[in-house]
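During the second half of the funding period, the structural biology subgroup turned its attention to how the target accommodates small molecules. The most pressing case was 4'-deoxy-4'-aminopyridoxal-5'-phosphate, which had performed well in the primary screen but for which no bound structure existed. We therefore specified the complex as follows and requested a full 3D prediction, including the ligand pose.
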Amino acid sequence: MEHLVNPRVKDIQISGIRKISNLVSTYKDALTLTIGQPDFPTPDHIMKAAHAAIDAHKTTYTPNPGMLELRQAASAFVKGKYGLEYRPESEVIVTSGASQALDITLRTILEEGSEVILPGPIYPGYEPLVRLCGGVPVYADTRNNGFKLTAELLEPHITEKTRCIILCYPSNPTGRVLSKEELADIAKLLENKSIFVISDEIYSELIYGQPHVSLASYPGMREKTIVINGLSKSHSMTGWRIGFTFAPEEITQHMVKVHQYNVTCASSISQYAALEALTNGVDDALPMKEAYVQRRDFVYKRLLDMGFELEKPEGAFYLFPSIEKFKLSSMDFTMKLLEEQKVAVVPGDAFSIYGEGYIRISYAYGMDILEKATERLEMFVRKL
Ligand code: PMP
């Protein structure tokens, strides 16, 4: 019966990140630097709130867009942190992670043949969702610009069919952040254009320097931007599956329909946990951030000392060094490193063809692992 499976679904490949993680589990003693999730436990007060919700039998459906109190807390959070104003009643949706937020957003705005501009290299979660909607991914190559999408790089890719641009800053996989000026230029370019921007700000709390600035806060951008955020990274809550969309009412009202028929609502227990996170844990990311900065500085310096060329990441928990000088494809480099030194990283080509020639190293691991893994990496590159 496989011939009856939707060809669009058949064409989707499993993510390169998963492929490597699955392979690593077959190696004994492998050190893995592949995973994109915090290694910290969910803060205790959030766990307690979830237990209390279970004990109080708060286990029923919630309103489709999420509990109003949680939408109020989410709205207050993005106002307090980033100066964004969204009405909790009609402009916020609680989703099952940022992943589902992306899915309902794309399904709400794309139609057959809609072009979606993606800065490459980029998080591999976007392209399959675009394709499932019949959309056409169009990549803007950011490699010669320190992995930053600028108005100049963006402009030549805009056509009559462009429906949306997806931005992710701080970026997975590069850790780069768009500056205020770069965002202002993009806002200016889009000023008179009817094009949506999906602004994936899931790493907004993990930014190491200047404060996070959302594209939606620029003049004229609120009406065309759908901001996506969530608690997976900021509160170390990947498994709880809580994300948010912030968008003007005229778009949100349509997204809610897709959301309703898709999942009805996000998990009620997780919503109570999220309410606690956004009420009494608004700065929970701070101690984790301190640890990430220390780890970033350590691995960054080690890589430089080994002779890698790389940009200094300003957010998220990834480094994206070039491996071009080793004359191996990113997959061959990754496989050889795993076989010879039992260290797993993600080949850059998992982040589109624009990631070829790089590897992604996650530093969401304890210092002991990072020390051992970088030692092994050093032995590996010395022999190459
Ligand atoms: N966007 C980016 C850029 C990510 O890195 C991730 C998770 N790795 C997601 C979205 C999905 O996050 P969530 O766990 O909230 O679905």
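Two results from this model are relevant to the next phase. Residues 2-42+285-383 form a domain with the Aspartate Aminotransferase, domain 1 fold (CATH 3.90.1150.10). The chain is about 40% helix and 15% strand.
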